[in-house]
Structure to design on (519 residues):
């Protein structure tokens, strides 16, 4: 290499030797914790035991879609029946670890399975699920009379991530 | 060394080099994706590909930037230098794939053009922790594209080696931009200390190697030779020069390679006309000075490449008196014949 280029090379490397360590330290020092969805305000009022009775609880109910053989999503699912009406159901979802999937929406649909991986047109939006926060959803009255499909849908990825079939309320045995 | 331009002048060494390179790339990506799926089952294929391409590109960039100084410090690394441009083009392709997947994943769903979105979606230039890291990557990618597109002897010859070299020195700017791209991007979200250590080690390795090599080079350039009354400069003893090799000295602001071969001494410019490689670090093979970088050949007596090649380097007049070598620092025109001095 000719002398002028060698000198330029030397200046560039000395500049990098000064700038990059400063940038490295600065970037690590100013690093801020990433806010998680658990920091967001949500309605997580527990269901009153006076009004609701626990009638179903399961840890591994959620099959990942489309590969149903993969480990189930780590969500504990509880079903509550309203003591007064007897037919009104509420579903509680408690993620046991961060789901790490963005913008999860919870839908229900009176069918056996979401064929083709598409969200059914008549699926009813129940609410959102995120992080490890426990969420509760009031299910449509029809869920007490027929088997109901619950779908977890990632709005960001535009795809179903998991689904489960809830048993009909008539078969639920109180604890 | 070839007379006419071809896309790639394939030979056995290049084929081996590229086979090893592409096998390494395939192996890395397979391992990364396999482990990614096993350890992070929730990660999407797009995310794993973005990270796989990105990490491999930055790893290859570190290897590429290490080759130059390693060769300055230790000649056994020279085979890595021979086909470095294929390494560079491969690295650009991987960086391009990383950028393309990232833009599709993060910027293609809105009503703004994805490339415009990269530039305007985050304008917090006054915040270090939220600094827009994506434009840094985009600028680095543009530099790498310029380098990859001109990584051919056609461009070396048409731009001239000094301009081509200056253009390709932008790789250090690209390196700084990429380090900052990672620092203000991935390392803001990934808090594991492992990533910081890896990047920090890579940075220290690259800067340290280059400074070591620069120190070695500079020490050679600092030696000053006094000119005698007839203008000749005594540069040392004949015995200082190994057979079929050269001693390199700095005369009149540029390096001169003084070769000893077959009982003779000749001096010519140290700068190869191909990519400005150091001729003085090469050897005499089959009676020709052979550049250690890419094997370009020059006759020691007149500094001209044998026909049909047309490269020429300047020659210098030489004398040997009482076993001492004296070189006139004024270069002859490239290709000028100078009678080699017979060593008595």
């Amino acid at each position: 290499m000719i002398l002028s280029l060698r000198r330029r090379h030397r200046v560039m490397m000395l500049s990098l030797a000064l700038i990059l360590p400063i940038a490295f330290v600065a970037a690590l020092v100013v690093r801020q914790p990433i806010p998680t969805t658990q920091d967001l305000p949500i309605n997580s009022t527990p269901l009153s035991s006076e009004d609701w009775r626990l009638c179903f609880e399961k840890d591994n109910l959620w099959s990942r879609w489309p590969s149903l053989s993969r480990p189930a999503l780590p969500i504990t699912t509880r079903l509550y029946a309203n003591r007064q009406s007897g037919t009104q159901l509420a579903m509680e979802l408690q993620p046991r670890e961060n789901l790490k999937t963005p913008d999860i929406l919870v839908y229900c649909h009176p069918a056996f399975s979401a064929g083709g991986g598409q969200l059914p047109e008549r699926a009813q939006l129940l609410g959102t699920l995120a992080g490890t926060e426990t969420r509760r959803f009031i299910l449509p009255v029809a869920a007490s009379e027929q088997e109901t499909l619950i779908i977890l849908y990632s709005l960001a990825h535009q795809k179903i991530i998991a689904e489960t079939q809830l048993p009909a309320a008539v078969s639920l045995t109180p604890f | 060394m070839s007379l006419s331009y071809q896309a790639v002048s394939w030979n056995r060494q290049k084929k081996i080099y590229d086979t090893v390179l592409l096998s390494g790339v395939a192996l890395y990506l397979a391992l990364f994706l396999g482990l990614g799926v096993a350890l992070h089952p929730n990660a999407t294929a797009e995310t794993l590909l973005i990270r796989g391409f990105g990490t491999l590109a930055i790893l290859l960039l570190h290897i590429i930037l290490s080759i130059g100084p390693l060769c300055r410090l230790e000649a056994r690394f020279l085979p890595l230098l021979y086909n470095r441009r294929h390494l560079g083009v491969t690295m650009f392709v991987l960086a391009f794939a990383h950028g393309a997947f990232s833009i599709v994943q993060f910027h293609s769903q809105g009503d703004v053009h994805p490339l415009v979105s990269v530039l305007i979606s985050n304008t917090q230039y006054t915040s270090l922790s939220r600094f827009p890291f994506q434009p840094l990557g985009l600028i680095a990618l543009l530099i790498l594209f310029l380098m990859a597109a001109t990584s051919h002897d056609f461009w070396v010859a048409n731009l001239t080696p000094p301009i081509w070299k200056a253009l390709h020195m932008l790789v250090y700017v690209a390196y700084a931009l990429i380090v900052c791209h990672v620092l203000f991007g991935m390392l803001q979200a990934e808090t594991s200390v492992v990533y910081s250590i890896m990047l920090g080690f890579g940075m220290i390795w690259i800067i340290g190697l280059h400074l070591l090599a620069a120190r070695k080079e500079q020490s050679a350039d600092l030696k000053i030779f006094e000119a005698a009354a007839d203008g000749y400069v005594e540069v040392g003893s004949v015995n200082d020069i190994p057979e079929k090799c050269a001693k390199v000295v700095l005369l009149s602001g540029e390096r001169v390679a003084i070769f000893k071969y077959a009982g003779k001494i000749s001096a010519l410019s140290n700068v190869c006309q191909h990519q400005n490689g150091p001729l003085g670090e090469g050897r005499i093979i089959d009676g020709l000075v052979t550049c250690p970088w890419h094997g370009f050949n020059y006759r020691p007596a007149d500094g001209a490449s044998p026909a049909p090649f047309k490269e020429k380097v300047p020659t210098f007049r030489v004398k040997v008196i009482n076993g001492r070598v004296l070189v006139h620092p004024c270069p002859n025109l490239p290709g000028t014949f100078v009678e080699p001095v017979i060593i008595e």
Notes: Chain A touches chain B at residues 1-6, 8-10, 12-14, 16-17, 19-21, 23-24, 26-28, 30-32, 34, 70-71, 99-101, 157 (CB under 8 Å).
